[in-house]
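Complex 272.
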Amino acid sequence: WGGFGHITVAYVASNFVANSTTAFFQGVLRNDTEDYLAGVATWADSVRYTQWGRFSGPFHFIDAEDNPPHKCGVKLERDCSKQGCIVSAFANYTVRILDGRLPEPEREIAAKFLIHFLGDIHQPLHTEHVARGGNGINVTFGGVKYNLHHVWDVEIPEKIVGGVGKEHPYTEARQWADSLTEEIRSGKFKASSQSWRKGIKFSNPELTSLGWANETNSYVCTTVLPLGPEAIVNQELGTSYYEKAAPVVEAQIAKAGYRLAAWLDLIASKIN
Ligand code: DCM
Ligand code: DCM
Ligand code: ZN
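Predicted structure with zinc ion bound:
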């Protein structure tokens, strides 16, 4: 996701975590405001192109070598690169936050990576190999040229809320997060949110995040590339594409925030 998506995921999570979880992560992240998660949600993207952060580039995705739209699915052995992938990184950073022997700055870094990767694992094109997660597929969206990855990262989420000013992504993300929170508590996501918790196994972070990656990847076949990659190259995605994609993006952002809260609660309760 772009910054707006990641910040929204973080605000949704802050609405659902237990009070003791808030206190714990405000300590780890050295920020006692209500923006303690939102404020670090895009940090991982800011370091990945720096010399220090280069090692973390592959941690933002897993390149499923499936064959959309005919066959979707993520297999850890086949798809996680030797340099690591989002599934192995999620497991590694969970272990590192819990490791009381590590220096505090290392556990802070682990928390910042984890918050970001839990968001990315819910973006369908972050679980797909084709054209480097759609980065190599040129399309137009509303008459403007983008690559498909960017359309899903940024353009669809921002269009859902009617556009996001570059000045105030935090204000607008907070508003979207509060409306998604309401849908989870008592609206259209109330029933499905029960199932979003199923499959979380704190004793096995790798299996848990692989489950999320597989669920996310299924939307590559149904919604991102329903007619395959060739069908959309240099084409306008159009209104009917957007109308099918937007509900998936909305649900994936809500789900990511809700699951982030559940995972942070488990980490904090294990330590407290
Ligand atoms: N690092 C990591 N996962 C590990 C070990 C290290 O992400 N299992 C990252 C975080 C550290 C950086 O690499 O800040 C440098 O670590 P080290 O000094 O242990 O090489
Ligand atoms: N990306 C991805 N899958 C890949 C390569 C990249 O999901 N195989 C993501 C990571 C970034 C975006 O696409 O969010 C742009 O990546 P890059 O700057 O590496 O082209
Ligand atoms: Zn990312």
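The first strand starts at residue 138 and ends at 141.
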